[in-house]
Amino acid sequence: MQKQLYMNGEWVEGQQFADLYSPHTKELLAQIPQATAEQVTQAIDYAEAARVEMANLTALQRAEILEHIAQLFKENRQRAAEIISLEGAKPIKFALAEIDRTIETYKFAAEEAKRLTGEMIPMDAAKGGAGRFGYTIQEPIGVIGAITPFNFPQNLVAHKVGPAIAAGNTIVLKPASQTPLSGLFLTELIAQTNLPKGAFNLVTGGGRVVGDALVTSDKVKMITFTGSPAVGIGIRNKAGLKRVALELGSNAGLIIDRDTNIDEIVAKCVVGAFSNQGQVCISIQRIYVLDEVAEQFITKFIAATKQLKVGNPLKADTDIAAMIHADEQLRAQSWVDEAVANGAELLTGGKIVEGIFAPTILKKVAAIEKVNCQEVFAPIVSVNIISSIEEGIAAINDSNYGLQAGIFTKDIQTAFKAAKELEVGGVIINDIPTYRVDQMPYGGVKESGTGKEGLKYAIHEMTESKLIVWNQA
Length: 473
Ligand code: NAP
Hints:
Bound molecules: NADP nicotinamide-adenine-dinucleotide phosphate
Distance between the termini: 68 Å
Helix content: 25-40%
Largest sheet: 7 strands, mixed
Oligomer: single chain
Strand order of the largest sheet: 14-17-18-13-12-20-21
CATH superfamily of the largest domain: Aldehyde Dehydrogenase, Chain A, domain 1
Radius of gyration: 23 Å
């Protein structure tokens, strides 16, 4: 039951432990070591010592290690998914989908490892460049500190571990306190590969102690963080000159144009709003629907939402289970209550039933309500009726966040307009803002973060470009 830390290729005893409970059954799952600052420093030292060996691996060796990790996930698909469901209450069908994406993410990382190149510089384009030959190479940055959230405990970890290995870096991973078992399972798989000792280290424990030790260490050259804006901003303020990539939250918006075939999009909207209990950074939080089709959409959206199966996350047909913590469900409830007290209309849900916060649809929600302007991170969506596309674009842009936005339209000019005017990191045309495949550039503007993930882009951020100039004269 007592788990261990992992550093320099060895399992290491913890000194203090925290109990880990299932959000669904409330049973005790394990006792998780809470690494001390000294243990984190030790893990960083091992990662630092492994830098040269890691950097000297060939592209093929790095790719083979990543392929091996992907293969091990394939062989252990069910087990890896069950761990996510147990510790994170993610319904098993979504957990299995996460493992399938994790496999792809490591495979993309393996492929990118093989095409990591610099560029040729046309030196003789300058007056002083005659006889010079110049090119850049991408060198590993060194030790990377990775801090990850609970909501995709394998795939979002893969978005850090995959590119770090592909680029020839070493890594110290701190998984979220509620989902450390997925990090520990990944560690068991990595231990079976040829990754050099010390190149991957796992330190579990609280954000404040473990996270701080990583963020403030001079030996850590980059922090790659996915999580909430509040923690991300705190990290940036403490990180000094080290590189920081921040993948933060959002209140993603979707516009539905008057020419949309509502029957074709309702099921997608339900998945986008409620999968993983809405605890997805690009979960649909705000829907702006043109008045001509609003009534039809709302009626069908409510009906489809009511069909969702609520219950045990380990059952194959469950769509909705408990949120990550009981107090998060109470927060969700209080935000809905507040919006309703201020005039919003509750169309379905809005309360905790048998320990699970029910999928919730609100209408006529003022822009200043928390459920609208803050990141709700719960199975709650607001439907707002608009009379023009401009109104929808303005409403989506009226946000501190800007990760992705979606628009359903058959009008090409409207699509171009939305693509140009929406202030977000990614515009998804004719699909929900929740759409993501793992090789695409992914990252937000405003308080949704800085830097891009998607293997090629993350690898670029995890390398230093070095210029080499030859004088042939
Ligand atoms: P969180 O509370 O910010 O935690 C994320 C990670 O940061 C956890 O490992 C946490 O550790 C750690 N942490 C907490 N305090 C810290 C500190 N002072 N210094 C360093 N690290 C610290 O986020 P979460 O609740 O796990 O995840 C939900 C958030 O992640 C949402 O805002 C969501 O939008 C965002 N997210 C963004 C993306 C994206 O790609 N943009 C993807 C997924 C999720 P503990 O668990 O020990 O507190």
